[in-house]
Each structure stands twice: as C-alpha cells, then as structure tokens.
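Hi R.,

Here's the chain you asked about this morning:
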Amino acid sequence: MEPPTAVFHPSETVGEVTDKVRDLVKKIFVTYCFITNDAGKLVGIVTMRDLLVSDPSSRLQDVMLTDPFVLSPTTSLTDAMKAVVYRHYPVYPVCDDAGILIGLVRGQAMFQEQTFEISAQPGRMVGVGKEERLVTPWQRSLLFRHPWLQLNLLTAFVAAGVVGLFQNTLDQMVILALFLPVLAGQSGNTGWQALAVTLRGMTLGELEGGMEKTLVVKEALLGLFNGALVGLTAGVGMYIVASMQSNPQALVLALIVTLAMIGSCIVSGISGALIPLGLRRIGADPATASSIFLTTATDVASMGLFLGLATLLLL
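And the predicted structure, written out as tokens:
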C-alpha cells in the first residue's frame, strides 16, 4: 500500500484540479483523482478522461464517479486478488471501516506479489519456505528444510512398518517386491494430481463453501476409473512376469495387483483432496508440506492393500 496522492475536495473545480495535476505529474504518476470530504472520507473518483473533457468551471462533485470500489487494509492478498480479478483497474483505493482514504494499492504490485506467492507454492508442498531463494545462504536453507525432512523420515517409518507387518509374505513370495514400487508410484501420481487441482482451486477461489464433498467424490471416482485402467495394465505385467517364472499362481497375482491398484488409487485421490482441506480447516497453509503427508498416505495404502490381499488370497 502506498500513501494516497492526487486527493482533492469535491468543491474544487475541474480547472483548478487540472492545474494541480499538471504539477503533480512532474513528481508522481497520477491515474485517478480521489475525492474526499472534510473528514477524509472517500466520496468519489475522477478519471483523467473526465478531467480532460469536463467544463473547467464544473465542480468535481458534479463529474466524479460516486460509490467507488475500495479495498480494506485488513484484506488478505488472496482475497483482494479474488475481488479485483475481473476489474483490472490500475489503482485501488484503500479505506478503513469508516471509509477514510488511507492509501492506494497498484494493481501491478498486487499481481507481482501474487505471482511470488504462487511461485512459492510448489516449494511449500515439499517443505521449502517461501523465504528461501537461490541466493539464500546454505546454513539458512538447511534451517528451513531440515525439520520437514525429519518429519518425512518419521512418516516413512510408518510406511516401512506396514511392509514389516507382511515380511513373512514377502519372504515366501519375493515376486511381490517387484511390484511394490509400481503400486507406490502410480498411486502417488494419482494423489499428486488431486492435490494439484485442489490447491489450484483454493488459490483461484473456485473451491467455495459446500463444494468439498463434491470434490472428494470426484477424486474418488477418478481414482476408481484411473486405477482400473492402469490396474489392468499392471495386472497383465504381473501375469507375464509370474508366467515367465513358472509361478502357478500367476492369474491370482495379476488379480491382486489389479485390485490393489484400484483401491490405492481411490485412497490416493481422496487423500489428495482431503489433506489440503484438512490443513485449511485447522488454520494451516494448505500447501505446507502437503506432499509429505500425501506420500505417507499413498505408500501405506498401496503397500498395505497389495501385501494384505496377497496374504489373504495366497497364504
């Protein structure tokens, strides 16, 4: 926000203000004339065009645009961007609750700041703070990043624990280990797609109240259909590998891979939508380290379902 400039009284004439503006433009860039009353309350705006074509003897109160659009000093950048996205004015007045003009915000400055916020979002998703830049000293970068890596390690232990529960199954059927990365990778990508769309909807203000349930159902359906399609392909792959190894349970193994892929993709899609929604619900930044929690959910779901089905159907 900048201090207000080109501020005039409604009783001044167009001719008087034109002379003042000629002097002002030698020092500052003037886009609008802001009209305030004796108390400093914004009552109107005069554009440069209206100033040029109006009769010099006319009062500003006769040529000004009344009830101008204003921003509040307490409005967040995200909410302000949502409010101005269809207006595209070069300058926006900022008024307090009493309507007193206290500053100006240039549209260019708002869009530059919003661009910075959006560019920082991918970093926040993996625990990199928006304060970190290419020129940030490595010691400070370490301070920013390391706590999230410790959290990531802790959540990775959870996924490892799930695999540990089925160690006996893996010992008896080593072929299952070949497809653990396949399940984790595909379900992870499904979750990332849902997460990206959800975060984008939040940033653009598309995710209005009451749409959360619709979003979760949509991502669950996408997980179901995408999981079925890639599950069939993965199932064929498992059948081929198992047949090459002369495994008599090749068909059952293919079915297990297909079912596990479907289930894990459904869980991943739902998680990709629920994690940022949950973070926002508790007042946290929806983008902050979302990928860490999502990776844990997708790994646990994919490995747990795969090894669990194998234990149930084969042992």
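Strands lie at 7-8, 32-36, 42-47, 65-66, 91-95, 101-106.

Let me know if you need anything else.
M.
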